[in-house]
Write the structure tokens for this entry.
Amino acid sequence: MNPLIRKALNKPYRLSPEELRELLSLEDTEELFRAAYEVKLRHTGKGVSLRGLIELGNYCCKDCYYCGIRKSNFRVGRYRLSEDDVVRMAQWAYEQEYGSVVLQSGELESEKNTVFIERILRRIHTFAGENLGITLCFGEQTEEVYRRWLEAGAHRYLLRIETSSPELYAKLHPANHSFERRKECLRTLKRLGYQTGSGVMCGLPGQTLEDLAHDIIFFREVDLDMIGMGPYLPHHDTPLGQGIELTSEYAAHQLKLGLKMIAVTRLYLHDVNIAATTALQALDDRGREQGLLAGANVIMPNVTDTEYRRSYQLYENKPCLDENSAKCRNCLHWRVLSIGEEINWGKRGDPPHFRKGNSK
Ligand code: SAH
């Protein structure tokens, strides 16, 4: 066995940045993925937790150079779900025993938006109580807003740092987007008691394997409970996506890198939740299944009504644009069984790292 894999297998946090980089550079990944899967089994058992993803709206005040719903993309039609619609979709996910939902949208900072989310959270709480996990993914907000949403019934928050390199971050965002604020938001979420998730995009233009190795160290420094990361995918109506073609070679490279990041992150952190994200499925029909076999334990099936899915394309090639939520549920069930895993129906699927109160 590769000595680095052996070293990482039994205890978390054993590898140096240089060793993490070396694992990320492996060409033959079979042993790496098998070891990561073994560590996942030890901490979260045989079983995949589901998060029903509701895409609330695509209005956004940010202008990230890679993202299809950036404020300056005038080619995308903007939408926002009604309060009733969001509650109905969450109720459907609850009744279908998804165990948890993720509410995500473009970033908006306003009292109106804060109240809108609060009302939704309170209504979900009336029918689901503590039995439905609720993750929010609404970007950077003030401590006060995070606290209000926590009090209204949310308990998880996902805020990707996108890259832990301040230099690369500066190249991917306009000058008024602050890396420091994003980092501070993560610390605030953790301090307030959220199950806190973050992650990065892998295979960004200008990103090195050293950068990715340091991203994994960063995950530990922030003491994250959940990791959501995925390969970068070009979007033609964005500055970063111009000139990048999604050829089959490019797709294969991005997929492999994304899978290696999952495996190496699992081998380093051990007891966190890691998502096999939709971006993997955009690159390969069985991308998410491969993610599960490389150490991920969470999948986020879309439960947004089909009519809105086309307007929420962060990248090209987004899968399941035309399948309704019931179809997605059925399809996913068989996909998970096909790799010898099972779905933890009706379970919230809290990250073991958080349950242990494993804070530094
Ligand atoms: N506004 C929210 C939600 C952002 S969308 C927030 O700030 O958290 C969720 C994630 O999609 C982003 O964090 C980013 O990592 C990812 N994403 C955006 N554009 C992408 C692209 N072109 N390729 C891959 N992932 C992308």
